[in-house]
Amino acid sequence: xxxxxxxxxxxxxxxxxxxxxxxxxxxxxxxxxxxxxxxxxxxxxxxxxxxxxxxxxxxxxxxxxxxxxxxxxxxxxxxxxxxxxxxxxxxxxxxxxxxxxxxxxxxxxxxxxxxxxxxxxxxxxxxxxxxxxxxxxxxxxxxxxxxxxxxxxxxxxxxxxxxxxxxxxxxxxxxxxxxxxxxxxxxxxxxxxx
Length: 194
What we know:
This protein is an alpha/beta fold and 194 residues long. The protein has one domain: Glucose-6-phosphate isomerase like protein, domain 1 (Rossmann fold), CATH 3.40.50.10490. The protein is built from 7 helices and 5 strands, in the order αβαβααβαβαβα. It has helices at residues 2-39, 51-64, 83-92, 100-106, 123-135, 151-156, 168-191, and strands spanning 44-48, 76-78, 112-116, 138-144, 159-163. The chain has a 5-stranded parallel β-sheet, with helices on both faces. The radius of gyration is 16 Å and the shape is globular.
């Protein structure tokens, strides 16, 4: 078991290093777009499935409450939390529309949509990003995979942060790390002087 622990740590660190090497500039660009979104009174709509749904909730909570600085709330909504809405849409229409209908209802051109998908191919996340683009929102995705392009999501989003790994656990670990980093960068840029 000890060698499994050591290997898991090494592989997790290697995934983060490869991600930063590939996406370091894109991380800063997305953080800057998030700052613009918040400063113009927009909100960040965050969504994904499974572990990515939990990430969406976690990240929205960091924006609304606080990350490192006690400051006023920043507008962010996880589209993964309203079970009545999600199940009504899934039942009446399709599970593929659970995010797109919420984006249609809540999204404005000054907002940013952030879709999270370890594969880059989640149908409902793709539809959510497509609808956000139709509204005129800026779009960003966190994806994973060795192809480097972020799958279908990477082809349609304005900002793609792709983790170059084939292992879902490492992709998710990097996603959580970069979600925290984005919160830190945005919070520091907007409230760092306070």
